[in-house]
Specification:
Elements lengths: L12 H15 L2 E8 L2 E7 L9 E4 L7 H13 L9 E4 L4 H6 L20 H10 L6 E8 L6 E6 L9 H8 L10 E2 L2 E2 L4 E4 L11 H8 L3 E8 L4 H20 L1
Parallel strand pairs: 3-4, 3-5, 5-10, 6-9
Antiparallel strand pairs: 1-2, 2-4, 6-10, 7-8
Helix pairs in contact: 1-2, 2-7, 5-7
Bound molecules: zinc ion.
């Protein structure tokens, strides 16, 4: 089996969008534009098995300088082409097309979209919140990269009393086959255990709201923000993302 991953095109958003549209056609998924960002359409890919409740949410590319997230999600989808339609999936292939094209964290107006979910005047965020309306997912995963990470790591947020068990360490084990796990005891100022940072969240901690917190508060009792080290080789980072998604989906769907 061959895959159409080409490292030199990882920042080519139009190429990414074309590949998703073609994949959606082949897999019988709905691929729709839910808004625009700068002049680029924002894509949402949903499977026929998705219902309002208990779906799996996967998003990538809210930071444009983190191309292993967008390529990793696409690789995972490609590897599972035959099964996608039977899985309850809600996927956002790239939330910041301009950023991806220009290799920038921010959008065309210099905004960090992942610090904008408390705002009501950002068109991309408004469109994102709109397309999420009515969904209550059983699990969400936001894909990222970090330039000063020393390996793969993640944040895991579960609602108090959530029936789900923590799964972060299992995702890191799967990803760690491709990229070593960040074993620092403190990552981004937070206590970490073998790459896993567990967080309880409260509204007042988020005057500035990232995507994962918005999901945790409104749409998802169990949320993971997954990070690969962006100084590591791109192909391995892409595989690490795909492996972590695969493990998460296996566990969540049992
Ligand atoms: Zn990021």
């Amino acid at each position: 089996m061959t895959f159409d991953f080409q490292a030199h095109r990882a920042h080519d958003y139009l190429y990414l969008a074309r590949r998703w549209k073609s994949l959606a056609r082949r897999a019988n998924l709905r691929c729709e534009s839910f808004g625009t960002s700068d002049e680029y359409e924002l894509l949402c890919v949903r499977s026929p098995a998705l219902e309002a409740k208990e779906g799996i949410y996967l998003s990538a590319g809210i930071h444009g300088d983190e191309p292993a997230s967008t390529e990793g999600l696409y690789l995972w989808a490609q590897l599972n082409l035959k099964y996608l339609r039977r899985l309850p999936l809600f996927m956002l292939p790239c939330l910041n097309p301009w950023g991806l094209i220009h290799n920038r964290r921010v959008d065309a107006d210099g905004r960090d979209l992942n610090r904008s979910y408390h705002l009501d005047n950002v068109p991309e965020i408004k469109a994102h919140k709109e397309v999420l309306k009515g969904y209550s997912f059983s699990f969400s995963m936001c894909l990222h990269e970090d330039y000063d990470a020393q390996g793969v790591y993640l944040y895991e947020v579960r609602h108090r009393g959530s029936a789900d068990r923590p799964i972060g360490l299992e995702l890191l084990t799967a990803a760690g086959y491709y990229v070593p796990v960040d074993l620092r005891r403190k990552i981004e100022g937070r206590k970490a255990l073998q790459g896993s940072i567990k967080r309880r969240i409260r509204h007042k901690q988020f005057p500035v709201m990232p995507e994962a917190a918005y999901l945790a508060f409104n749409h998802s009792p169990h949320t993971i923000t997954f990070e690969t080290p962006s100084e590591y080789e791109l192909g391995a980072r892409v595989q690490a993302h795909a492996a972590a998604i695969q493990r998460a989906v296996e566990i969540v769907l049992g």
